[in-house]
Give the backbone structure.
Amino acid sequence: MSKNDLNIYKSPPLDQRSLYLRELVIRAFEGGTRGHLGSSMSLIEIIRVLYDNFLNYNAEKPNWGKRDRLILSKGHGCLALYSILADKGFIKLEDLDLFCHDDSILGGHPENGKIPGVEASTGALGHGLSIGVGMALSAKILQNDHKIVVITGDGEINEGSIWEAALSAAKHKLDNLIVMIDYNKLQSYGRTKDVINLEPLYQKWESFGFQVQEVDGHDIRMMETVLKKTDYTNNKPNAIICHTIKGKGFPFAESNPSWHHKSSMSEADMKAMKDCISKE
């Protein structure tokens, strides 16, 4: 089976927890009447498995020194992050209702220092991995054993800064660093293969000195197994390519570039989203 065969994964049906997290995203959409639906939906399971099964954190003490760090480098997918932060108690569920309001802590991109649990302000794409490399290197120097997880988009890794950071990660043997690529094959105005073809993506990360694995980014058990069984002591940074579907869970939005971002949500749009959740 080829590592570059993009059709080898058949995601299991969304379970009740994944549907609930999507309900929270819809709640924020209804409050803000805008946002990146496609980019958030491809992320839900990736972020869910990290917070449910992998990361060490304390929602009551977001700056706990021994916590693992998660950086959502593709900051426009922030609604997926906000949903899990609300679910875990970093923020209030009611905060979702004020998404993108002038008096809200929740903007269209996550802001460190404003939102508990957000480790870095992201949105200018391509910067999150550099921040993560700095954090991972600091942890090594201070002999701390926490991990740094950076989630990037696939369109985002067109940025040269991503690959500069990757070279630095390999040079410094940052085996405490995990890059998870949300590989939904679409970016803001087209398919990644048509904008800038990323393939062979597995071999690219491998050639940059990373330990590389591929998973179905909507399969919780698969991702949990890979995260827990990975060797984090071999002096190699880690890349996990997560094959996902943009807009996952909403058939009208799945792999549909027009749902990358909606500037204003109509009542019909909101009803269509709610209907998808209620039918499951």
The first helix runs from residue 16 to 32. The beta strands are 69-72, 148-153, 177-183, 186-187, 190-191, 211-216, 238-243. Residues 16-279 form a domain with the Rossmann fold fold (CATH 3.40.50.970). Residues 1-6 have pLDDT under 50 and may be disordered.
